[in-house]
Amino acid sequence: MRHAMQHDLDTLLRTIAADVQPLLGEGGVAEYIPALARVPRAQFGIAVATVGGECVGAGECDTRFSIQSLSKLFALTLALQREGDALWRRVAREPSGTPFNSLVLLERERGIPRNPFVNAGALVVTDVLCSRYLQPGRAVLEFVHRLLGETGVAIDTEVAQSERAHSDRNAAIAHFMRGFDNLHGDVAEVLDAYCAQCAIAMSCRELARAALFLAADGRQPRVGEVLAPLAARRINALMLTCGAYDAAGDFAFRIGLPTKTGVGGGVLAIVPGKLCVCAWAPGLDANGNSIAAAAAIERFAAATGSSIFAAPPGGH
Ligand code: GLU
Fold first, then answer.
1. What is the pLDDT along the chain (316 residues), one digit of tens a residue?
2. Is 56 left (phi over 0), alpha (psi -120 to 50) or beta?
3. Structural domains in the chain plus CATH codes
4. Ligand 1 lined by 262 (C-beta under 6 Å)
5. Ligand 1 mean position to 196 CA, how many Å?
C-alpha cells in the first residue's frame, strides 16, 4: 500500500516536472541583489513530504535555493512559540493589497503591519526573536535544523551580505515602526537577523519536510508538538489569505491550498492532514511569485483533488 502510493506520487511529480518545462523560460529572476540576479532560470524541482513519513521528489528537488520569504513561516512559528497570542497585538491578519515591501499602509495604520508575511510584519516577528534569543541571526536556522533532525542546512553568506547591503527599504520600514513603538530592539540587529533568515538555502525536499507540522495540526513527525493545533491552523489561514504577496487571492482561486511563496522562486503548499508540497523555479511573475512552481502546485492540487474547498469523499 505504502509502495503503491509512493509509486503514484513519483509518477505524478515526474509528469508535472515534464509538463512545466516550457514555462521555465518565462519571467525574470529576482534582481534586487546581485547574488540572486545570476541564478540560472532553467531549473525546476518539486517534492512532497507526507505526514505518514514518505518523501518523494522530481527534477532538481535536492538543489538548495534561497528560501527568502518562506523563512517568514518558520520565524512566525518560533515567535508564536515564545510570545503566544500576544504577538497579534502587534501584527494584524489582513491581506495588504500592496507590495510586500510597501510603507504606504503603515502610516495610516500607526505602525501595525497588515500581516506577518509582508516585510513590516516579518520585521516585527524578527524583533520578537531578537528579544528572546542571544543569537537571533541563527534562531530560524537552528529551528529548521530541529525540524529536520539534521544540521546540513546553512545560511548562504553571500546572499546574506548582499541583502544587508541593499536593505534601505527594510531599514526604513523598521525605523518607521520603531517611531510608532512597534519595534523595540535595535534596528540594525533586527535587520541583520532578518537578512540572515531570508538567506537560508534549502531544497524542495528539505522545505517540504521542515514544514510538515503545518499539515499535521502543529505536530512535527519525530519531533513532537511545535505549535498548538489552533496556532498551526491560523498560520494556514494566513498562508491562504496573505501567503503569495499581492496574488494571494489568485493563488486561492487557482490552487485552493494554504501557500507561501518567496522571491528565490520557492512555493510551498499545505494539504492539511496529509502532506506538504514544495516546488521551485527561479523565473518570477510581476508579483514576485515563481511562474513554473505555481503552475506545478496548481497541477498537483488538481490531480490529487486536494483543494481545501473540495468536499471529502463520501462526505455528502
Ligand atoms: N529578502 C527579501 C526582502 O526582504 C525577501 C523578499 C521575499 O521573498 O519576499 O526584500
1. 455 566 799 999 999 999 999 999 899 999 989 999 999 999 999 999 999 999 999 999 999 999 999 999 999 999 999 999 999 999 999 998 888 888 888 999 999 999 999 999 999 999 999 999 999 999 999 999 999 999 999 999 999 999 999 999 999 999 999 999 999 999 999 999 999 999 999 999 999 999 999 999 999 999 999 999 999 999 999 999 999 988 999 999 999 999 999 999 999 999 999 999 999 999 999 999 999 999 999 999 999 999 999 988 776 6
2. beta
3. 2-304 (3.40.710.10)
4. yes
5. 11
222 CA → ligand 1 middle, Å: 31
Closest ligand 1 atom to residue 195 Cα is 1
The Å distance, Cα 30 to ligand 1 centre, comes to 9
> 3-class DSSP state for residue 56?
strand
Query: Which of 209, 305, 286 shows the shortest CA–CA distance to 244?
Result: 286
Q: Is 261 in the pocket of ligand 1 (CB under 6 A)?
A: no
**34 C-alpha to center of ligand 1: Å?**
14
> What strands, in cross-sheet order, belong to the sheet with 65-66?
65-66, 200-202, 154-155
